[in-house]
Amino acid sequence: xxxxxxxxxxxxxxxxxxxxxxxxxxxxxxxxxxxxxxxxxxxxxxxxxxxxxxxxxxxxxxxxxxxxxxxxxxxxxxxxxxxxxxxxxxxxxxxxxxxxxxxxxxxxxxxxxxxxxxxxxxxxxxxxxxxxxxxxxxxxxxxxxxxxxxxxxxxxxxxxxxxxxxxxxxxxxxx
Length: 175
Prior knowledge:
The protein has helices spanning about 10, 35-55, 60-65, 140-150; strands spanning about 20, 65-75, 85-95, 100-110, 115-125, 130-135. Strand 3 and strand 4 form a beta hairpin. Strands 1, 2, 3, 4, 5 and 6 form a six-stranded antiparallel sheet that branches. By secondary structure, it is of the alpha+beta class. One of its GO terms (molecular function) is hydrolase activity.
């Protein structure tokens, strides 16, 4: 199985950016570019906005006493970002199981027109009172499924680990 080529920035822009920012001087590391922790902060900021947009934000947590916990993540660096360059964050939904979802966050260097890095993630829906994974409520599952279906129609793929994803029972169809 061959890895897909990186999509172009124009293709990634089919996913509206959830966050944009200019790399500030406090982000610089000893190598003269943005330090890894700031990429992770960008992905987290983008994920929080993306989750809020589908109904999984602070209001949901307060009303339902449920949220999401990170289960697995993989950060991949593809090109550097230097101080003063503008970046955008885009979220692509890949799949949903009864209690988890699989997605990828993409940081694009707007100044150079290159994909800077990706964060592939698997998140569990968790009952915050029991601290255990819990099924998504039907309305929220429907919203996530609609995002997954919309993003599945995009004509491009991102290189993924191949080791992360939603595990489905044998009797449940994919998709």
